[in-house]
Design a protein that fits this description.
This protein is an alpha/beta fold and 206 residues long. Helices cover 23% and strands 26% of the residues. Helix 2 runs parallel beside helix 3. The radius of gyration is 17 Å and the shape is globular. The protein starts with 9 loop residues before the first strand and ends with a helix.
């Protein structure tokens, strides 16, 4: 490395449908960093209060203390003040697009940033800032769930109304819920009237 070359950080993206183990994998990597005595901080979007607002919590109950915020600028300021070198962000799809510049700033300053989130919403549409984060990531881990209909690998999150797939027009793109409202489905079993590539429908996520 040239003496004038500044050492940069990295961006790791963990993605997949609900119930694929994204938060569990995020927690695993962050705990390894803690064991290595690195300066670690964990963030989650404040909208996600399903289990405990003060923790990142996986569906199997694994927890890690976290700062709840909905603001990329606040997250950046906190990291820079405390000089964290490893930053974890869960449910990153819920953040507005300003989280992208926040993450890029952290990486430029040498931080290892690990984010986890849904790559698609329940309609099968790319979710919030995730497409850009996937494109600029140093590494991407795409996890699979198990389809509750046929048992195949599941890449989609299915929204339910009772035991039946919900109709897109009756609900909003951003919902926070667990197994009582969502299940995992493979492509063949995923039921939605939203088709990828419809510009008007994709605009509704911005």
């Amino acid at each position: 490395m040239s003496q004038n070359k500044t050492k940069k950080g990295s961006l790791e993206v963990i993605c997949g449908p609900m119930f694929s183990g994204k938060s569990e994998e995020l927690i695993r990597r962050l705990r390894r960093a803690e064991i290595a005595q690195q300066n670690v901080s964990v963030f989650k979007h404040a909208i996600d209060d399903r289990y405990n607002i003060e923790n990142v919590t996986s569906h199997n109950g694994t927890k890690l203390p976290a700062h709840a915020t909905d603001n990329g600028s606040h997250l950046l300021a906190k990291v820079q003040t405390k000089k964290y070198t490893v930053v974890g962000i869960d449910e990153v799809q819920f953040y507005t697009h300003d989280i992208i510049s926040t993450i890029c700033a952290l990486v430029e300053k040498g931080a290892r940033v690990i984010v986890a989130g849904l790559d698609m919403d329940y309609r099968g549409v790319p979710f919030g800032p995730m497409p850009t984060l996937l494109a600029i990531a140093d590494s991407v881990t795409k996890l699979k769930a198990i389809c509750t209909e046929c048992g195949d690998d599941a890449h989609f999150s299915q929204l339910l109304a009772g035991n039946d797939p919900a109709i897109e027009k009756d609900v909003q793109p951003i919902l926070v819920a667990a197994s009582d409202k969502f299940t995992a489905r493979c492509r063949a079993c995923h039921d939605t009237d939203i088709k990828f590539g419809n510009t008007k429908q994709n605009e509704s996520l911005r």
